[in-house]
Write a structure and sequence with these properties.
This protein is mainly beta and 115 residues long. It contains no helices and 11 strands. The strands form 2 sheets. Strands 2, 4, 5, 6, 9, 10 and 11 form a 7-stranded mixed sheet that branches. Strands 1-3-8-7 form a 4-stranded antiparallel sheet, with no helix packed on it.
C-alpha cells in the first residue's frame, strides 16, 4: 500500500521560497495522478497543483500560477512542490496526494509565511 510522507515545510518571510517533498513507500508512483493540497486555519482543504497520471499535463490554482511548480522524480519516487514569491496567504498545512482508483494522503507539513 502506498504511503506518503511530506517534508520541507517551515517558516519563511514573504517573498521567500520553499520546496516541499513527498516521499513514498510501499509502491512506486507509476500510474498515479499526483497533487498538492493545502488547508489554512478555518478553511476547507483546497487543491494547489496536480499532475496527470501520464505526466502529460499539470494544473495550478489561480492563486499560485506562476509562483509554484509541481514535479515528480520517477527514479526517486518523490514528488515536489517548489514555492516561490511566497505570500502570507500561502500559510497553510500542505498535503501531498496520489490517486489511482484509491486516494492516498500524506500527514501534512506546515508552511508559515510571515515577517
Amino acid at each position: 500500500q502506498l504511503q506518503l510522507v511530506e517534508s520541507g515545510g517551515g517558516l519563511v518571510q514573504p517573498g521567500g521560497s520553499l520546496r516541499l517533498s513527498c516521499g513514498t513507500s510501499g509502491s512506486t508512483l507509476d500510474g498515479y495522478g499526483i497533487a498538492w493540497f493545502r488547508q489554512a486555519p478555518g478553511k476547507e482543504r483546497e487543491p494547489v497543483a496536480c499532475i496527470s497520471s501520464s505526466g502529460a499535463s499539470t494544473n495550478y490554482a489561480d492563486s499560485v500560477k506562476g509562483r509554484f511548480t509541481i514535479s515528480r522524480d520517477t527514479v526517486k519516487n518523490t514528488m515536489y512542490l517548489q514555492m516561490n514569491s511566497l505570500k502570507p496567504e500561502d500559510t497553510a498545512v500542505y498535503y501531498c496526494n496520489a490517486r489511482r482508483g484509491l486516494i492516498y494522503w500524506g500527514q501534512g507539513t506546515q508552511v508559515t509565511v510571515s515577517s
